[in-house]
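Progress against Task 2.4 (sequence-to-structure conversion) is shown through the following example record, which the project officer requested during the mid-term review.
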Amino acid sequence: MNAPSCGGATATRTSTRVDVAIQGIRLLDAPVSRRSGAGPSDDGHVLLGGIGTAIPINPDSPFTINRGRLLLDGADTGLGVEPVRRPRFYDLHTADGVSYEKIARLHSANVLATTVVQTCARYAEAERCRFCAIEKSLEAGSTIAVKTPAQIAEVAKAAYELDGITQMVMTTGTSNGRDRGATHLARCVRAVRAVLPDLAIQVQCEPPADLQTITDLYEAGARSIGIHVESMDDAVRRRWMPGKSSVSLDEYRAAWREAVRVFGHNQVSTYLLVGLGEDPDELVDAAQELIDLGVYPFVVPFRPLAGTLATDVDDIPPPPAAVLQDVSRRVAQALVLAGMHGADQAAGCAACGACSVLQSEGA
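Structure tokens generated for the chain above:
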């Protein structure tokens, strides 16, 4: 995958994508969307300029859509917008009456995603991640607490056959066990691979206490893995992730190294959130450290969503567009220099790219 040219049109479109990622779109009619959950935002899924994109729905945004065109204060930005159509598998139910939509969701145009356990051991108010609302969708009745391997396999097969999904993401709330939830992930991966042996699957979890668990996930059939740190600044971690920050950065580094050994170079990723108060230069340096390890730093903006505890950290707004664009551009340049592209990952957030502008910068 080649980096895009640095011409004016490309730069303008990247700038527009950054602005939309932060400000969202007003009156967005998106048949495929997310509300609350584990993040990164309340969003609608569209094809923006032909690229799958997750866009916040914001009634105060200056961006609107008219006749399939993205407008800024009424002026055409040059980008077309096409909502991702509602998948047919959403209309189906399991034999015991559970809607398939409560078991797994379509993300972007071709990614099936599920949170296999919708509760988290760190969700008590004193410990929870301030940007996360994983249990809000459960409280709203839009999902179920634990998805069984059989349920997930049933839905995946239907989504593949009816809607042409090409990859799958399985994440989980953290458990109290040493595996931190990875054992159930492995069971679910095995079940899906039994019915769809060629489907690319990414798993996402905290660093397990026993690193053998990473091999277990690979042997179950996962082909990429996300071990998400969100920030590599310990002060930021303690402020935003009081419970999760008890897992040291050294534990993360050990897990990333082992995951790269098992899954391969550029098949491991981690989120880095822009806008949590971290110095932009230090954030780029952290991304470079990850790249040197063979880990793809998936850079996305912090965007408050319903049900989070952003009010506990002074109602932090999304980052300025100029900061997000600068950080994304520098990280993308480092990724391209290292020969790492999200599209080269087997599956997962970096492979999809909808929540970040890194792919529009060539990474």
